User: Fold this.
Amino acid sequence: MKKKSETITTSIWQEVASADNPFVAQRVHVHGYDLFSDLLGNISWVEYLYLLFKGEPPSIEQTKIFELLAVALANPGPRDLSVRAAMNGGVGGSTAAASLMSALAVGAGQHLGGREIFAIVLGWEKCGCNMPLWTQWLKNDSSDNTVWPKNDSIPGFDPITKQCAPPVKQLLEQLSNRHNLATINWLIQHQAQLEQHVGYALSLVGVFGALFHALNFDAEEAEMLYLLLRLPGAAAHSLEQKRLGWKTYPFWPDGIIYREPTIEE
Assistant:
């Protein structure tokens, strides 16, 4: 009886097996592009990410926007709870995988986490650049009513601050000066009106969500990428804290302990 061959159903990845070893690929294609002949050396990290998720390479403009977004997301900083979780793992001697998994778990929620990005992009998909639709959407419960509890805060807005933070203004200014995005232009024009309607200031996460939508990522893709692109900062702070040890761990009652590096370091 002839053994049935294994079939993997995917439109992303195709392998051509070597003649002498079926477990070793002779050629690898990603959405039709030869990984080692066409892509390697000719494509950047964010271009490859875009290709993996969307099935086609980004335009030059999309690449620049995605690179800007990736840099802005790469390190939320040690006050972010997902980074703090990775730092806890590092200083406690956890494995690399455990520290990163803790960052993913803590950073997945509805406030400053992946699920907030999901909700924001879903809002853009439903409302677009339509102010009446946004006012209606912001007024209603925007949670997806699955495994997540009702969201007490409004996605994309800081639940405490009423004044827009400088990094939010700087990011919007950068985008306005460098790129002509209908989504961002509309957000800038209606920012004050949206903030007045909500009662709180637009947050960085709100701008990130608008950018994911402008790059044509849907809500699920944006949630995945948001979680992924924040891991470099979690990893770096985890390793740093592991080397520094628990005696210099920040957030003791007296505040963050910061030490300027010496010349030797």
